[in-house]
Write a structure and sequence with these properties.
Layout (H helix, E strand, L loop, with lengths): L2 H19 L4 H22 L2 H13 L1 H17 L7 H14 L20
Helix pairs in contact: 3-4, 3-5
């Protein structure tokens, strides 16, 4: 095989791989993400009482990054305990469990005597 033939084969193969693994258009991906989010919210509304949903919304105002992990935990719990809704007290328990898992950093400051010995003379 000549160098040109090898190069053509490589280009064809690269195009095949790109077409096979290329992401869908951004509009299609956004639509799918929106549909998934709608389904997720629908499932959560069926799994949680009104009070628990309100509490979760308030948490989302303060710490939006934690809401997703809490929602995931609720969905997992629903798979195990089918047929009942998560109450506000159960949501509080979930929050406490997540708070225990977080690592807490404490900083201890020490007072150093930075006065110069020359000042005392």
């Amino acid at each position: 095989m000549s160098q040109k033939e090898l190069e053509e084969i490589r280009k064809k193969r690269l195009q095949q791989m790109k077409s096979k693994y290329s992401p869908q258009s951004s509009q299609e991906m956004q639509k799918k993400q929106q549909q998934m989010e709608i389904q997720r919210q629908s499932a959560l509304s069926q799994l949680m009482t009104v009070e628990a949903r309100e509490r979760l919304k308030r948490i989302g105002l303060v710490k939006p990054e934690k809401v997703r992990s809490i929602e995931n935990r609720i969905i997992q719990m629903a798979r195990m305990y089918q047929g009942r809704k998560i109450t506000e007290n159960e949501l509080i328990t979930i929050l406490e469990q997540l708070a225990e898992k977080e690592t807490k950093v404490t900083i201890q400051r020490r007072n150093w005597d930075l006065s110069d010995s020359d000042d005392e003379l």
